[in-house]
Structure formats: structure tokens, C-alpha cells
Amino acid sequence: MKVSVHGCGYLGAVHAAAMAQLGHEVVGIDVDAAKVSVLNAGRAPFYEPGLPDLLAEGTTRGALLFSTDAADAAGADVHFLCVGTPQSAGSGVADLHHLDAALAALRPHLRPGDVVVGKSTVPVGTAARLAAELPDGVRLAWNPEFLREGHAVDDTLHPDRLVYGVPRDEVADGGETARSPEPGGAAARLDAVYARLLADGVPRVVTDYATAELAKVAANAFLATKISFANAMAEVCEVAGGDAVALVGTMSYDARIGGDYLGVGLGFGGGCLPKDIRAFSARAEELGVGRAVAFLEEVDAINDRCRDRAVELVRSACGGLAGRRVAVLGAAFKPDSDDVRSSPALDLARRLAGEGADVVVTDPQAIALAQAAAPELRYATEVAEAVAGVDAVVLATEWPEYRDLDPAALAAVVRSARLVDTRNALDLAAWRAAGWDARSLGGASVVTHDASRPGEEMVTG
Ligand code: UGA
Fold it and tell me: Please, what is the Cα angle at 426 between 394 and 461, to 5 degrees?
């Protein structure tokens, strides 16, 4: 099939390359000429494991090309909308101007029989509005994407589910669409695009627009809630003298709860979870059901307090922050990504610097983007350079190479062997054995208050 993909960022570039891998002839459209030329050279404009190989393979074979001109999408059977829907400045509302602009550029090139497929994360109600703006004979589907950065290629080629939001006339047929989609309908067209995935047994849900739009935000809201639940338990443990990592470990044995997304630490960031829960709250408020998701404000607040608690942990480890030299390991919002949007690690570095610490940040992939987002901070490309002469080392993004650091070797180059692990990723016993004062968020080693001696601090564990 001929496929066009509009927006070639973290979502669209991966989707375009994956569609070529599935055997389609793909054109990716983006307004950024520099990004388009990098992609046409078969290279990835951002760090994503596996993507360079897929791009090189697709472009070399001639199955994948990129352009800044939406006219190059003419003649495609399916047009995927993959542009970003960031948070609006000054409010939680999703900013849809990229989506509206992409559709406006595409609209003159659509012909009857084409199917437009939205993949961007949008407030519920957007698909119905956009469907009404399409030319006669062009159908719209909403097909949310559940990929994670860092695993994007695998998540796209081996998704755990496919969700199609299709026009009402396709779903109001007593489930017939799901069994055998009407030829020419949006669901049938998506089945043809994803034929290989369906043959692999990937489950697919055919539903209405609203359910498909909500399928994405509900999943992200649930994941964010799980993370904040774990971090709320960490707050309680830090005061009550418990060990939050052990606590969520006990919960994870319960198959109804599971252990995923219960990581105790610095909390969530990135281009999705933070803005999606805010956009969901804002949309629910507009719909008059704000109370139904009011808990998401608390989820957001717990997440923000993780960063405050991390600052306090570093402060108590160092006996103050002003003038203390601190190395922050990690700037990306999570490992295997160079994305620093709403990065907890970079925000922690900023907050420490804001409290007067002399901060140096390092990261295996994200330094260039971090430098652009936070030029006021100092950066070092190597861990050894970052930690030389510091008063504390703070692990903020759990890159595999940081898990493998040798505590004895590092102890020899720092000024004071103090470690704060904000991700509960390191073996603190091994670090302590190498002479480090090692602390972690929510862990039994956190400096806490001894109820029997008010005002005094003690270290447990
Ligand atoms: C998230 C969802 O996981 C994807 O399913 C979704 O498609 C995507 O958003 C999106 O909306 O496009 P992503 O933002 O790539 O994916 O990142 P995650 O791997 O979910 O991690 C999000 C944040 O949560 C990271 O900062 C991570 O460090 C943090 N996290 C994750 C925790 O703090 N604790 C955990 O236990 C797990």
C-alpha cells in the first residue's frame, strides 16, 4: 500500500520506518527541512535504539522517503497524522495547532476513498471535529499509538494491541466490523496496513472515536497513577521508617497489581505522561466531569514532590547545598532516550543549582538537547570528568552504564564519597562497602525523623 505519515518526530519517524518495514511504500512529511534531509540520508534525527537500521534499510530500498511538501502525500491510500500535541503555554490544555496545520496542508491532496488516520494523542472529541472537516468521500480513523521511547521500534512492530476508532456507521453494525470489516471502510483499510501484525495475533479493538481517543489517555493516566502511587508510599515510608522499594515489592507478587510502573524514585517525565494527564483533566473539566479525574491533579503533585524530596535528600547528605559540588548522572527523562522534555533528571539538576549547588550534568546521549534546554548548567561528557572533586554524586536517570559503575574507582576521584540514588537503581550495599554514604529515595536508608527524638535525624537501614 501507499502510505503517508505527517509529522516525523519521535512518533512519526518510527511509524514511517516501521510501515516501510511492513512492506508499504511510505512518504514521511515534516515542516522541518533539516530533519527531512537527515531522514532521507537514512539517519535518525534523535536517539532511538533500532531506528537507524530501519531507516537505512527503508531509504536504501527506495520504500521510504521524506519530504517537506504535503503534495507528495497525494496518491497514498492511508495518511497517518503523527504530529505532536504539546501542552499549551500557561494551561494544561492540549495545543492542537500542529495537528490542524498538518491536516490543512494535506486536505487539498486528499481524494475520495482515502483514509486519514490520527495517531497523535488528542482530547476526546477531536476526531469527530476533524472528520467533519474532511472532503466528501474521505474517511477518518483514530488509531492511538502506545509506543514507549527507547522501545519504539519493537513496540510499533510488536504492539500489545491495535485500537481503531472508526466512524459511527462502521461501529453501529452489531460488531460486524470487528469480525469482517466492510470493504472500503476505515477499519478494512487499517487491517490491510497492519496485515502482518494481525497475522501475528495482535489483538485489535474496533470502536468509536471517543473510546479510541480515551484508550490512549486512560492508559497513560493509569500508568502515571501507578508511578505516583508508589512514590506516595515512598513519602509515607520516609517518615514512618519503612522501605518503599520492599513495600512495592510485596505488592508486586499480587498478580492483580503487578510490579510494572511501581518504580520508587524521581517520578515520571517525558513528552507524554505529564502533559497527557493535564490535558485529560482540562478536557474533563470542559466536559463537566472534572471531578471524575480530579485525582490526576494529586498524581501530578505527588510526582512534583519527588523532585523536592530528592533536593532535600541531597541537601541532607551534603549538610547544605550552597557551594557544594554535585554531579548529576543523567539528563534524559529515562534511559535509552535523548529526550529531555519534562525530564525529572534535568529538573532536579536545575533545582539543585537554584539552591546554590555547583552542578555538573552528564548523560550518555542527551547532553546536546539538555544543553539547549538548560544552558545555565555545566555539562561533562564522561562520568569520570563529571564526578572529579565533587561533594555528592546523584543518580537521576538509570542508564545501564551507571548501574555498572565501580564504586571503589569513583571513590578515588570524588572529594566526598556521598551517593544519592533517586532511581533505586544501584546496589547501595556495594557502594557502602566501598566507603560511600549512600542514600536513596523512599528506601530504608533515607534520612528520616525518629519519632522518639523529634527534630533529630537518623539513618535507618
Ligand atoms: C509513555 C507510555 O508508556 C507509552 O505507552 C505511550 O505510548 C507514550 O507515553 C506516549 O504517550 O506516546 P514514554 O513517555 O516513552 O511512554 O515513557 P515511559 O517508559 O512510560 O516512562 C515515562 C516516565 O515514567 C519516565 O520518566 C520514567 O522514568 C518514569 N517511570 C516509569 C517511573 O518513574 N517509574 C516507573 O516505574 C516507570
Answer: 95
Q: Are 233 and 244 in contact (CB under 8 A)?
A: yes
Question: 191 and 259: one domain?
Answer: no
The CA-atom distances, in angstroms, between 310 and each of 109, 172, 251, 334, 446 are: 52, 52, 24, 16, 10
Any atom of ligand 1 within 6 Å of the Cβ of 334: yes
Which residues constitute the domain of residue 451? 220-459
Cβ of 270 less than 6 Å from ligand 1: yes
Q: Are residues 143 and 73 in the same domain?
A: yes
Average pLDDT by consecutive 10-residue portion of the chain (461 residues)?
97 98 98 98 96 98 98 98 95 96 98 97 98 96 97 97 94 70 88 98 97 98 98 97 96 97 98 97 98 98 98 98 98 97 98 98 98 98 98 98 97 98 97 97 59 41 35
Pocket lining: 106 vs ligand 1, CB cutoff 6 Å? no
Which ligand 1 atom sits nearest the alpha carbon of residue 267? 33
Please tell me if the CB atom of residue 335 comes closer than 6 angstroms to any atom of ligand 1: no
Do 334 and 435 belong together in one domain? yes
Residues 331 and 235 in one domain: yes
Residue 448: CB within 6 Å of ligand 1?
Answer: no
What CATH number does the domain containing 71 carry? 3.40.50.720
Give the position, in ligand 1's atom list, of the atom nearest the Cα of 266: 33
Total of domains in the chain: 2
The alpha carbon torsion through 182, 183, 189, 192 (nearest 10 deg) reads 110
Ligand 1 mean position, distance from CA 100 (Å): 26
Tell me which H or E stretch contains 65: strand 64-67
List active site positions: 272
- Ligand 1 pocket test, candidate residues 223, 280, 348, most atoms within 8 A of CB: 223
